[in-house]
Design a protein that fits this description.
Blueprint (H helix, E strand, L loop, with lengths): L3 H7 L15 H7 L5 E5 L2 H17 L11 H21 L4 E5 H6 L1 H12 L16 H4 L8 H5 L10 H4 L2 H11 L3 H5 L11 H45 L1
Parallel strand pairs: 1-2
């Protein structure tokens, strides 16, 4: 019902919703919507981190309040990890309902990947699906340019975006992202080889300092969680005591 007006206007029988954070609720969506199919778009985590940092800068330039994971590399790493883990979990649980698509593959050969997506969705392939430049929509025209602007949404697929992260992230930032995702087996199986970044002595020292901070931050978060759980149990015990002995 929420999107019925758009569906009627476009005479559509299939609805697509591409909010990136949907990956966090793939399992819920699949359970709630029997006909739902999900596309899990993978991308080099270094490119994702670089993109999020650029979004944070856009927010600030146009006067919008940036989201925390677009201004802090560590938070961008955490958010990306959360999305990856949720997406891979959905793939394992519902392999017939979730299709994994590598961003790099789509950019390199959009027709091949688009045909694969259409086959997964039981939709007929049409050449105009890749004709982004001819698309004109009033909603796109009104976009404030927070995440994407009209030029990027309707322009040609640009392969230069595949290597852009190398000029956006500093060597230290690249090393931090690489280190955070090197141990993710699913990424390696998907073809992502995150080779260690060669750094100078000072750069290695900076990375070690940040990693130490992350370790202690994680330990503190776990301690807070345990303390919170202990206090909760303590309150429950007090309530039980008062109910029985008052």
């Amino acid at each position: 019902r929420i999107f019925s007006r758009i569906r009627q206007r476009e005479h559509a029988t299939v609805f697509s919703e591409k909010t990136p954070w949907n990956v966090l609720i793939f399992e819920d969506l699949i359970q709630l919507l029997p006909g739902c199919r999900c596309i899990f778009m993978l991308r080099d985590p270094r490119a994702i981190a670089a993109s999020l940092m650029e979004v944070g800068e856009k927010h600030q330039k146009i006067g919008f309040r940036p989201l925390p994971f677009t201004t802090s590399l560590l938070k961008a790493i955490d958010k990306t990890k959360e999305c990856f883990e949720s997406g891979f979990r959905a793939v394992r649980q519902y392999p017939e309902r979730v299709l994994v698509v590598r961003y790099e593959d789509f950019v390199s050969d959009p027709e091949k990947e688009c045909r694969r997506i259409c086959a997964f969705l039981d939709l007929p392939w049409r050449e105009e699906m890749l004709d982004f430049e001819s698309k004109s929509d009033s909603l796109i025209a009104r976009l404030p340019g927070i995440w994407n602007d009209r030029e990027r949404l309707t322009g040609r697929i640009d392969r230069q975006s595949l290597e852009k992260w190398k000029s956006v992230l500093t060597p230290v930032q690249q090393a931090l992202v690489t280190d955070a995702f090197q141990g993710m087996v699913e990424l390696r199986e998907a073809g992502y080889q995150l080779e260690p970044i060669r750094l100078g002595l000072i750069q290695r020292f900076r990375v070690s300092v940040v990693k130490a901070f992350v370790f202690h931050r994680s330990a503190l978060i776990r301690s807070r969680a345990r303390l919170k759980d202990t206090l909760k149990k303590s309150r429950q015990i007090r309530k039980f005591y008062y109910a029985v002995f008052k």
